[in-house]
Structure formats: structure tokens, C-alpha cells
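Researcher: We're teaching a course module on how sequence relates to structure. For the next exercise, students receive a sequence and then see the predicted structure as C-alpha cells, so they can try to spot secondary structure elements on their own. Here is the exercise chain.
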Amino acid sequence: MSLEQEYAELKKSLDLLSGGHTIQRQDIDIGFKRVLTVSEQDFKGMNNLKKQAILNPTKEYLKITSPGKANPMGKYDKLKPSNATYEHRSRTTKIISSLREISFIDLEGDVVDDLTTSEIEMGLLAVAENCEEQLYNGNSDINPLEYDSILKQIKDGCKKSGLNSTLDLRGDTMSSAGDRALNDIASKVYKNGGWLTHSLMPTEIATDVQSLITDRIRFEGKEKGGAGGYVALSYPTTFSDPILISGKNAGGAKMFKMKDVVIPTLSSTELTAPTFTAIPEASTDSLFGNSDAGDYIYQVFPIGVDGIGVGSTISSPVILQKGQQVKLAISNANCLETIGYVIARSQKDGSILKEMIKIKCDGATTTFIDKNEDLPGTGEILLLTLSNSFQRIRWLQFIPAGKYDFFVTDTLTKRFGIVVVGTPDVIAPAHHGIIKNVSYSNALWS
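Model: And here is the predicted structure for the students to work with:
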């Protein structure tokens, strides 16, 4: 089924909810923008993206991947071809919605002033939170209803182009390795054609970034006064303007999370726990070194459309040596409802397990190879090149925020939906950067 057919089916469903009449959309995009502005500290990612209206649910365009070259020539020479290269891009928007209900008893009474307005605002807030959360965690490979996060688009784009804009901190903290990390990632992106201006990160990592530079006077900052002391706003590098590391447009992002202990949101009856084996084997490109040799425990949790199910744990620890990898063979009889898996792992010889990676479900049997590329309990830093002269990242909006009223059923409630249709679009992936496998000070593993 094509995307246009899917939208036609959605329209039919919404028409049925409205009693068979053509459903009417009430434009509330001003309210959506107000929510993003008033709660700007909660929506740093969304507020950094410039909005571009599009006329179709899928945006298709040609992206210049290389401008080619120019050549010196004589007065009567023929011009030489530039050999510029282009790539066809396609980005599909996604539907983010929130169903709201108000009892007619509450509407008739004087329980809350302007209850409908309050429900609209709460619906807009819920939609904005989901949009922001997907900017960091969305993965359409696992859940086709989600859009791809900015981080995934950067990784996929760089893998396709052969360029590298990711730095691996291998479990170190920004308070100890931040100087090298920020300069190295700025250098990588600069060579790719970008210059970093903004950073977004989990709040735990943001705290470490500030502790890195608390006693350094060369950074632009502001006095907070009292015990708060000095807070740096930006970090200068040789390869860019100072990178914003705090404030309303950068730094700690509330919905950008560290990988942590996995907490199921669904019961074992709602989503069947998988079974799996974990077998060590030789590898020529394993990142398990001498210091990593030891015992490891694994857990696998099923992912469904509505959340994470109860997981299963390997019966005995896997004993690993230098140069080995672990092959996980995951089986699930209920593969129709399982769309992916969260794989959790302990530290060497540890007993606490934290999220390591999310993968898609490939059917009844899914195979994953752990080469120690993704470390459990770590986080990532997203670094962006935001420039007014050249758009490198944007928000494609097919349908602005709207309110759709539904007909009254046998329940005495007023029902309506708050809907936004859009997606982030990373136009130049290699012009942005990621620092991965970042740990933080005082991380609890015991």
C-alpha cells in the first residue's frame, strides 16, 4: 500500500469517527508553536529546526553530494564538465496524535474553567513531547510508525557517503576526555564541509561538560550568582565558531536519555518474552581487548508498538577472551507482535545490566553480533551545524497542528484528536557530528 493510500485509509477512519461526515480540521498550529516557545527548555531540538511546509506526505528532492570542480581556461578554450554528483532523496512524514476526551458532566458543570482549551493545550504538549523524543530515539526500521531520529539520519547518511562524523569515546567521560573529544569531532565535521555551532546531550553528560571547564576563564559564559557560580555557554575550537553547550538552544536536553536499566512497560501476557542463546566466537574485528576479558551477562527484551515487554536473561554468564565476539540468536514465537528487541548487557564481571542497543525483529529468528561497538549504560552527544546561509537540517511539515472533532458515541464524552504530520530531515549528514559511548561521572553500576 502506497503512502497516499495509507493517508486515504486514515481519512476514511477519521470520517467514520465523525459520524460518516467529512471530518473538519481546526488549525491550531499557533497553539503548537506557543507550546514549543513557552516550554523552550523542554523542546530544544524542535526549536532548533526551521519549519518547511510541503505539499505531499513524502518529500522528494535532488541533493548535490559533490559540487564538482572548476578549471582554469584560456579565452577560446572549451569549458570542461564540473562532474558534480547528485543523489535522489526521499523523506516520509509521520503522524503524531493524541486522543482527548472530556466528560459531559464536567462540561456542564463548573469544575475547570475552559476545560476544552485546557485539553487542547495538554494534547499539544503531549504531541510536542513525542516529536521531541523521536528526534533522539526514533527508528523507522524498528517501528515504521516513527520517523528516523536526527542521530540515525546522520549515521545512515555518513555510512552511505563513506564520510565519518562520529567519534567513539569508549566509555570515557566528558569531564576527563572532553577537550580532545570536542576538538576531534569539530575537526572531522570541518573536513566534511560543516562547522559545528550547537550541541545537545543528556543532562548527565551536560553536567560533566560544565565540570570540564568550570575553572577555565577563556570560555564565554555568564555569572549565575550565589553558589551557582560560573556557567559556560560555549566551547571554542580551532575548526568552528564556539559550540553552544548550554542555554535555551543547547546543552542538556530533557528527552535525550542515557541508556539505563531496562524497565518493561508491558506484561508477559501482552508481549511474549523471547528465548535466546549467546555464544562467544573468534573475530578479526572485535573491540573486546585484553582489559575486556571476563564474564558478561545478557538480557533481551521484546519491543512492541505499545512499549517494551518483559525480557529474558541468559542462563549463565558468557566468558569472553580478547579478540572474540558474541553471537546472539533470538527466537520468538510471537514475532507478529514483536517489532524489535532491546539488548542489555553487564559490565565485565558485573551483575547490573543496562541497555546496550535496540535492533529490529527479523522474524521468528533474529541474529545479533556483539563486537563491543556499543557500550551499555552510555549516551551520545549530538552536534549540529546550524547556519542561516545554508540549510543543513529542517522540519518538514505536511499537516500543521490540527484539532479533529469526533462524533458522540454511547459514552457521554466530547472526543477530539490533536494531530501533527511531519518529520526531521537531515540534508547534509556529514555536516553534523555524534560523540558516542559517552559515560558520565558517578554512573551507578553497583
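Model: If you want an answer key for the exercise: The first strand starts at residue 25 and ends at 27. The chain has a mean pLDDT of 89.
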